[in-house]
Every structure is written in structure tokens, then in C-alpha cells.
Design a protein that fits this description.
The structure is a homodimer of 234-residue chains. Chain A has 234 residues and is an alpha/beta fold. Helices cover 28% and strands 22% of the residues of chain A. Chain A has helices at residues 20-28, 43-48, 74-88, 107-114, 128-136, 156-164, 178-187, and strands at 4-9, 31-36, 57-62, 93-97, 119-123, 147-151, 168-172, 195-198, 206-209, 222-227. In chain A, helix 3 (74-88) crosses helix 4 (107-114).
Chain lengths: 234, 234
């Protein structure tokens, strides 16, 4: 009897924004894996920490962060091998995922390596998308609005082309693109109601109107929300 | 001391997909409001039912469903007045919202009427967006993918224009547009990997490859997920 691989969304940061289903999976799974930087804390593990009971075997997936490049895939090969050994022995494994496992999450690298030969269940989590809108008091989209999720890492011309045909947009991975994005939205007349947020739902959450943010750079996990018609709910 | 209005995301259908934070708000709030059709059950209330404790005052917001039209706003005027009376008397009110309150939710009509004069807190919920991806085992987006949420109610030409510049798309409100959407995606060469899902995470959930769904119509809350490069995680 082979074990099940769970991709568990632990939500955006506030440990209360975890689901009952995620809690149940974490309670009964004795092997957990989590992504982390080369040294130090895992954000996903930190979010789940208040909910971790009993002795667990923990697998750290430590990924070098290289600005502007996607990570060396061999780290996932190694982690997938270790996880597969447990699954083959009939042991379930839960991978802790910040936000939602399938919304720009690194879980999909493990999913891609393991889903063909193993049972995989994904427990959806509160994504930074809806958590940021809630924290800002700014509805994302309504009625027949079209909404785009746009990585701020894309060049100006590509962002501009997509913004032209869309009612509302959420920029993810703002990071070092903050100043450029602010100038682009200003030029397109979209800066007035654009909202900036970093560390949504965490103790160090910061929210501001984008036009009042002076910085050129932001933390990687910061976002900008914009709506073409101003406020979506009017 | 004025009361607080809570917009509480109760998730997509499975009562386990509610957050600890939503539970805490529901436990300590004695007045709840929920949207419902003119007669019969409220889906939002049905999702929250296993978690409702004690005696609560309940406010039904019964909204006539008129195909192809947005609802008569006077229903929200009346509901907002009733809710405002409680808030002014210092009583908190929790509005139950299917999925997430700010992701195409009707909560924003109450928000628009009450946020200026009252304290409002939004508790984000698992949206059908990430719940459907989890149920399908189909990652939404990865890396620098652009992702669009597109109401299937829009005309073919508008959907086509938006699909041209986007890597992945989720069609919401598929309903009576199912047949038309299937033909559009086929013509654009995007039908091969398009996934169909209705009643995500509920007992009567149904998932299928879109090209194998013969129907012309679907339930209103059905969705289609598509990724231009086939599978997002490869």
C-alpha cells in the first residue's frame, strides 16, 4: 500500500488562515517537507508551526535564491527521491506550501516529479491574491470584470499589452520591479487607485497607496492591486 | 460603540475548507446574514451550517436570479439598512460568503453601501479558483505565467482577444455558455488540455476534460481551466 503525497496550502501568513482540512492532514501525517532558503527559517513551516503536533520527520527543501533566475531543478530531484522513498514504504508525506500549492507555488515541481507514480492530494489554501484584497479592503473583481494575475518581472511592453484588455490586475513578485511598475501605471493613468501591500496578514504587514510608496524595491512577496474603473464595488 | 461588519469567506463547498479565523468570527457573532435564491436554501449557509453554534439572528438576503442581468440593487439597499441598524446598536454582523468575499462575490454590494460609515473586516476564503485547481490536480500557473480570470458571459471576440496574450485562463460563470466556450477553445487550439469542473469540493462534484463534455449548458457555478502550454508544471 503506497502512501499519499499531500500538497497542503497553509495560507498567506496568519496561522489562523489555515483550513480545517489542512489541520486534519497535518495532524495525522508524521512526515512533513517544507521549502526554505539555504539557511534559516522556512516561511511555510513558520505559518504551520502553531499547528504541528507530536514528533514529525521533517524534510527541508533548501533552495538557493538567484535573482532573476529560476531555481536549480536538481534540488527538487533530490527532494522528490527522498519523498518517493517514504511513499513507496506506505508512509504519507505532507508538503507545506505558502498560500496555495497550485497558485505559483513551488509544490508543482514536486507534483511534476511524483504525480505520475503516486497518489497526490492537494489541499487548497488561502492565496495571497484574496488575502491581500481582504487586508486592503479592496475588492478584486465583480460582475463581468476580467482579472489578470501578472508577474511584475515581465517587461513593460508585455505588462502594458495585457493591461489594455483587462479590467483589474494583481501584480505578483513585485520585488525589485516596484519603481518601474509605479512609473508604468502612472503613465497608463492607473496609479490613482493602485494599492501596494507587503507581508499580507503577517505581523509586519504594510499597506499603502502605490503612488505614496517612495521605494524602488520591495520584498519579493509584495503585490500591487489595480482596478481600471477605480473601485470595483461602485 | 459601533459594531463590526464581517465579510466571512466560507470556502467553495466542503465545510472543511473553512479557516480557523472564519470559525472564530462565526462563533462569537450572534447575527449572521446570507445570500439565497428567492425560495429555498442558501449555499453559503449550507456550507457554514456544521459550524454554527448557539442561537443566532439570521438575515436572509433573497435575490431574484434573472438570466443575463445583474440583480435588482434594491435588495441590497434593504439588507444594508437592516444590517446598519444592528451595527449602530453596537452589534457585530457576519455575512456568509461562498468562496471569497472579494472574488466576484455579492458581498461587495453590501461593502459598497456600508464601508464608509462602519468598520468592516474581510476574512478571506478559499475561492473556487484554487479549489478547482486542487480538485482537478491541475496547477493554475507557475513561474512567470500570466493568468486571467474571464467570465464566460463575455462575447467570443472579447474572450479571444484576452486569450491571445495570456498563458493560462480560468473561465467562471460558464453556465449556459458551455457549448460556445468549448467551440471557441477548440477553434483556438486550446481545447486539448482544458478541464471542466462543476460543484467543486461538494458531494456532487463533477470533473471532466472539456472536450469530452457533451452538454451545451452547465450549472452557473461551473468553471473551465486552460493552460496554453498544456500542463503548467512541465
Amino acid at each position: 500500500m503506497s502512501g499519499t503525497l499531500y500538497g497542503v496550502g497553509v495560507g498567506p501568513g496568519d496561522p489562523e488562515l489555515i483550513t480545517l482540512k489542512a489541520l486534519r492532514v497535518l495532524e495525522r501525517t508524521s512526515i512533513i517537507a517544507w521549502p526554505a532558503p539555504p539557511e534559516g527559517d522556512s516561511l511555510a513551516r513558520r505559518i504551520a508551526a502553531p499547528h504541528l503536533n507530536g514528533d514529525k520527520t521533517e524534510i527541508a527543501i533548501r533552495m538557493p535564491i538567484e535573482a532573476g533566475r529560476f531555481p536549480d531543478q536538481r534540488v527538487y530531484d533530490t527532494a522528490a527521491d527522498e519523498i518517493a522513498t517514504h511513499l513507496a514504504a506506505g508512509r504519507d508525506v505532507a508538503v507545506l506550501c505558502e498560500g496555495d500549492p497550485f497558485f505559483y507555488g513551488s509544490f508543482m515541481y514536486l507534483f511534476g516529479r511524483l504525480a505520475q507514480d503516486h497518489t497526490v492530494q492537494v489541499v487548497p489554501g488561502i492565496s495571497s491574491l484574496t488575502a491581500s484584497a481582504a487586508a486592503l479592503g479592496a475588492p478584486l473583481a465583480a460582475r463581468n470584470d476580467t482579472l489578470a494575475i501578472l508577474p511584475a518581472t515581465l517587461p513593460d511592453a508585455e505588462l502594458e499589452a495585457r493591461l489594455r484588455s483587462i479590467d483589474a490586475a494583481v501584480f505578483i513578485k513585485v520585488g525589485r520591479h516596484l519603481g518601474r511598475l509605479r512609473r508604468l501605471l502612472k503613465r497608463l493613468g492607473l496609479a490613482a487607485d493602485a494599492h501596494y501591500i507587503e507581508h499580507a496578514t503577517m505581523a509586519d504587514q504594510r499597506t499603502q497607496l502605490l503612488r505614496e510608496v517612495p521605494d524602488e524595491r520591495a520584498p519579493y512577496f509584495s503585490m500591487v492591486l489595480v482596478h481600471r474603473r477605480g473601485e470595483a464595488w461602485t
